[in-house]
Amino acid sequence: MSLETIDRSALFLRDEAPAFLKKHGFQTTVSTLATLATRGGGPVYRKFGNRPVYTAGDLLDWAHSRLSEPCRSTSEDAARRTAKQRAATEYCAAA
């Protein structure tokens, strides 16, 4: 299996970005990217005229940032999420 070299500066219009992400194992939609662009939490984008464009690097960085830590079982994942939720609750209560 050969690994493809990715040009991290390659540009994708919003309607092209989901196909690029899917090719690299991350399923998303144009509407999700549009919603995240208005609410926050999505990949960094730039404007070309009035059209949003994303670099390959920004898309992949965003997708990888949404991955969880590696898990060996669903119970390990649940315990990690519970601990993370508990820590967030304690942080908010202390603020």
Structure description:
This protein has 95 residues and is mainly alpha-helical. The chain has helices at 17-23, 30-39, 56-65, 74-94; strands spanning 11-13, 46-48, 51-55. Strands 1-3-2 form a 3-stranded antiparallel beta sheet. A hairpin with a 2-residue loop joins strand 2 and strand 3. It starts with 10 loop residues before the first strand and ends with a helix. The mean pLDDT is 88.
List the helices and strands and how they pair.
Elements: E1 11-13, H1 17-23, H2 30-39, E2 46-48, E3 51-55, H3 56-65, H4 74-94
Antiparallel strand pairs: 1-3, 2-3
Sum this structure up briefly:
It is built from four helices and three strands.
Query: What is the count of helical runs?
Result: 4
Straight-line distance between termini: 50 Å
Average pLDDT confidence is 88
Instruction: Supply the helix-strand structural class.
Output: mainly alpha
What's the count of strands? 3
Give the helix level as a range of percent: 40-55%
The whole-angstrom Rg is 17 Å
Strand order of the largest sheet: 1-3-2
Low-confidence stretches: none
Q: Globular, elongated, flat, extended or rod-shaped: what is the shape? A: extended
Largest sheet: 3 strands, antiparallel
- Tell me the fraction of residues in β-strands, as a range: 5-15%
Secondary-structure element string: EHHEEHH
